[in-house]
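Researcher: Good morning. I'm working through a list of sequences from a screen, and I'd like to move beyond sequence-only analysis. For each chain I'm collecting a predicted structure so we can compare shapes side by side. This is the next one on the list. No need for commentary yet; just the structure.
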Amino acid sequence: MLQHVFSAGFRPFFLLAACNAWASMLPWLVVLSGTAVPTQGWPPHTLHAHEMLYGTVAPVIAGFLLTAVPNWTKSEPVRGPRLVGLVLLYLAGRLALVLAGTLGALTVAVIDIAFLPVLAWFVGAPIVRKQLWRNVPVVFVLLALSVANAAIHYGLATGNATFLRVGTHGAVYFVVILMLVISGRVVPAFTRNALIDRDRAQRIATARSVGAAAFVCGGLGMLTQLISPGHVVVAPLADFAGVFVLLRMRGWQSLATWRQPMLWVLHAGHLWIALGFLLLGMSAHFGIGIGAAALHGFTAGAMGTLMLGMMARVTLGHTGRSIEADPATVVAFVCVIAGAAVRIIGGLGPVGMYRGSMLLGGVLFSLAWFVYTLAYTGKLVSPRADAA
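Model: Good morning. Structure tokens for this chain:
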């Protein structure tokens, strides 16, 4: 079994990400219910955010890039002992946080931060060697996420709330940038391929100028929000970014995908990016309560939906199976989208709804990832279905 698990990067990292998503959410749900849990000196909300980002999102990014980059560069994928070492480095970070009460803050930080720079080396080396400069930004995002993680650890060690905020929010924003880049490539491409035998296929197109405008407005808006929360320019920049992201979808024939869950989940995830920007604009305009809704629009909504959709697609396609959603996969997709929607609505509604929406949204999010774990573990640890 292990030879199959470590034959491709997506196999161990998707499985670990899925398990971490629901396992690390459970203590947070206990906290929300009013019961204290051990956090090894971390504020519960900080630990929750950190493990969602670096325990769940980071391995999903790792699995995706370790699968995509060899295709982009026509190079040998990371597998075998090198992949084992990378997985152990990721697991060491999770263990270091569990032992944070015993290990020193610097030791915990070094162990936890190490994973992404090493991943950046594995991903970046073939890109630079083949001089595929348009793919270099993914390496910068990995390094930026490492810096954000360092800021979180520094803020925790020194009690500096500014570093904690900048590190946590910065990590979210860096992932949003990565999602903007990757989704702009894969969503229309996958849709075009799926609808190739229909008239709509030839009409699928992306206006690159609109995508570039979304990238610039969104990047500047998030950077400004990071440096000066609520600055007067954040609202219009975020509003424009949300509108441009929506406009980018005009030629993607989203409505034509409603019969194909493996497609509409990606369109829904891209739509969540737009909603995240619009919520960020509302937060800058009106403030109270909406800031958390904007962050969860990006995280529970966009990241949760896009990641789950891509993980299902990559797992099926790269294990020799038909890229079609079974009932369990559809349940996972519906739960992750519904969980994000509940969380956002609760953040925008009356104060009395807030905690209940967080609990229900968290339960639905956990259920989505637990269903993926049940439905896809066998596929991730077994030989390719089309193996001779």
